[in-house]
Amino acid sequence: MVEVRLTPQRSRPRPAVTAPHVRALLDEAYRAARAAPRDPDLRVDLAEALLSARQARRVSRHLRRALALASREWGGLGRVGEVLFRLGEHKAAAQVFGRAHALGVLAARPHRTYAALLHEAGETRAAKRMLACSALLEPLRRPPAPDKDRPQVLRARCFDNSRYQVARSRRTGLWSRSLKSGHFSLSDLLRPGAVDLHVLTAWGDSLATLERLPKVDVVLNTIACADLNGPQLKNLDAFLARFPDLPVVNPPALVLGTTRRANSLRLPLIDGVRFPRTLALEVAEDRTATLRRIEGEGLGYPVILRVAGTQTGLTMEKLDDTAAVRAYLEARRPGETLNAIEYIDLRDGDGHFRKTRCFFVDGRFFPVASLTSDSWQIHSGDRYRVMDKDRAAQERERHYLTDPAGHLGARAMAALHGIADQLGLDFMGIDFHLDDDGGITVFEANAAMRHNYDHVRAFPYTRPHLDRVTEAFEAMIRRRAGLFG
């Protein structure tokens, strides 16, 4: 069986187990393990219960015991790997996952965790293979115990161009993974117990192999980026056409129309909307030819280049001259799709940049954030560059959140509603700048936006407005599911 090296645990006082249901699970796991001391599965049950009780220091010995007791082709290796991953023993977890995969006993869920660890280690091709295996092993995942009083929701996602990212909880110290790239997250849009979630996972044209669906009330398409997942959206659209009576939130055919290039062509036709001119192109073997095409578009300098389909600015750069563009192109792979975007200088009188965000949920407008930064590329984490020390910036955001129509004015509000009507999505966001003429400059308009509570401790006035988004999203799902209570 697999031998693993684990980090020695420092001796610390064990936290008391106060939650009655956690205490009951832990007591039952101990009783079962003592009744059958040579059963490796019961040892893993105990390790999982200890982890839930935040008794991490005692977990490792039970995992070692399980591995020592197990047969050579034991099917519980994936569970061991999952516990090791959550503890932060990532090297040992990857070793266990690799052994289980080689034996053919690795289930779909640990394949995803293994993919996250491989991606973290820079083994992106191997990570993609693990995601493909996961999707093919488990194209459809059902909730363990559906509740007839809850909406039965089929979440649609794809793994082709996605990845899992790992993160450590500051509160518990345990590790988790989350799906990134091309989807919107449900973690803060649907509260625990709001729905029963069935999950449909696609890889390539794998949906063609599915002949039927479980009894669900509504399909929730979380594939959000048309630039990244155009073929997958087309596959999902063809698949859902076989179930014409199922309501669909964010129909894939509508999401397909939200590429940056398409938005740059149609959204400026709306009064009060300015959208930076955008050129979509592939990096040619001859980088000079690509450079000439960019310059021939007349976007001027500086110009923004980014890899199509990427979010959070990971591949986006503002380039000031020909030499900088050439260097950027040389660093990209031939055949990679880029967006070349007109740069519009939107600094205010203090030299700061501003970005405002709203969501539309089932046609209703919700103000979300109004950020101020000293960087042209603004993200929510930039709140701590300028805003946490700038009372005027916080007051501007408060005004926007409490009185968006008064803050923005009639022309901007009409423009935002015009964009939502044009795109037609049930859930979407718009990032924009309020211009001096009362119109808006739009940075993004699509569903690939994350609703989160990451900064409410530092900016507590934002919480009630974020709560309204969650409440509206849940209410929309219930309406689409035919539940109105």
Characterize the structure shown.
The protein has 485 residues and is an alpha/beta fold. The protein is built from 16 helices and 16 strands. The chain has 4 domains: 20-133, Alpha Horseshoe (Serine Threonine Protein Phosphatase 5, Tetratricopeptide repeat), CATH 1.25.40; 140-256, no CATH class; 277-342, ATP-grasp fold, A domain (Dna Ligase, domain 1, 2-Layer Sandwich), CATH 3.30.1490.20; 353-481, D-amino Acid Aminotransferase, Chain A, domain 1. Helices cover 38% and strands 18% of the residues. Strand 15 (427-434) and strand 16 form a beta hairpin. The mean pLDDT is 93.
Keywords:
Serine Threonine Protein Phosphatase 5, Tetratricopeptide repeat, Dna Ligase, domain 1, single chain, TPR-like_helical_dom_sf, alpha/beta, 16 helices, 5-stranded mixed β-sheet, 485 residues, 38% helix, ATP-grasp domain-containing protein
